[in-house]
Predict the 3D structure of the following.
Amino acid sequence: MTTSRLVIDAREREWIQLLSPPSPPPPSLLRPSGAAVVMPPTTFLFPPNVDISTALLPCGDAHLYVDDALVCIVERKTLNDLLRSQEDTRLNEQLARLEPCSDATTVVLLVEGRMDLVDATTRRRIWKTLESVRHAHPRIDVRTTSNLEETIEWVGVRLERHARWTVAAAAATTESSTVVQIALAPRKASITPAALVAHLLSCVPGLSHATAEAMRAAFGWTTVAACVRDLADVDVQKRVAAWSAPTRSGAVAKDSSVGDAVVADDGNDAAQASSAARSGCEKKTTGAGGGVLVLRVTGAAGIGGGKMCK
């Protein structure tokens, strides 16, 4: 349940008088039986659940609050006030003070009066003034009403609209955030550095997801990530081939698609040199468990792939 509040500037006597609760009828309106004469009903509609108060406002003639949040500032001008304030430059000063408030709330210039009751010259001046306000202060909303009753009705409708928006926004925020958290909870739990490194390796042509997981488990994701970072400055058009081999004597990791061998034994330097010479770039790292991880960016177009041999 939202609470709406209207604060009127204490100098706006017409607003205060029209929105004040009806006072008891004077004795002159009492019939001999003691019953009061029925007064004519008001000609405007205003929400009954709005708390109305007065204060000396620093800017604007009325402040509209919903749940203690300032949602709108209204500057009211009659047609004569608009023209006089435009002539003595008070209008520009007032709007200059109001415009910074539009960053946090809605600012409305409410022009009150009937255009059809003024002469053509005055009407033209009024429209030119309103157009200049729209161009000089685009963040200030300009509205027109016919009389004070219509102005008060507009304020009441605005309060009810902001109250509905507040309720709808709170409900939408709660529902969407709950749905998003439920939907993303398992996905967020699976997004870890180790999983990202395994996914990176599985993107290499010829490497399955199971092989990438085995490489990541054997050497650790930090070692694999360090090798990838060292090769990050190589041309992105070159493909990455990955091999892994244990460091026992004579063990050779052979890639059938490339046709060269990466040997993890110190006695096969010639084969490693030949393989590295035909490669664009190569990074070899020894893991904590004794295995050797080699990441190579091949120079030949269309060549890619790899596998890990036990």
User: Anything to note?
Assistant: DSSP finds nine helices and eleven strands in the chain. The longest helix spans residues 148-190. The chain has two domains: 4-172, 193-298.
